[in-house]
Predict the structure.
Amino acid sequence: MKTTMAGALPEIRSAQETDFPAVEALLEAAHLGSEELSQHFENFFVAEIDGRLVGAIGLERHGKDGLLRSAAVDPQYQSKGIGRRFVETIISYAGQTGITRLVLLTTTAEAFFRSNGFSRVGRETISGEILNSAQFRYACPESAAVMVRALPLPL
């Protein structure tokens, strides 16, 4: 972990099985559901500062689409660049695994994701396996913004 004048920079790393309870608690505190969390936990990343988990973000694979989900940062550590680093991590990871489009649903962070290259689209424009995810079926309200970002094909 590096330290700057602004404080400690978190380590962003792949989530481990032992992180599950802390991630689940973080998502609940952020009012984000943990539906099907255990089924996709192998594609989660966490931010840790001084041994304390302060953020999480996950990815669900649905064919060539990836569903970015469960992006949460402890309020005490928000506005410190952790969210942006999380999105960069997920974009890189998704691209390396052959995902060509990231999709997300949000009720609170549309401006944040727009600033990270996502565009809002109509829910009806989404098709394929991703519609079978809990997020699309029941976890996110119909009023949630649907956003997408195309990823370059891996070289």
User: Anything to note?
Assistant: Helices lie at 20-29, 37-40, 82-96, 110-114, 134-139. Residues 1-6 have pLDDT under 50 and may be disordered. The beta strands are 3-4, 7-8, 11-14, 44-49, 52-62, 65-73, 101-106, 119-121, 145-150.
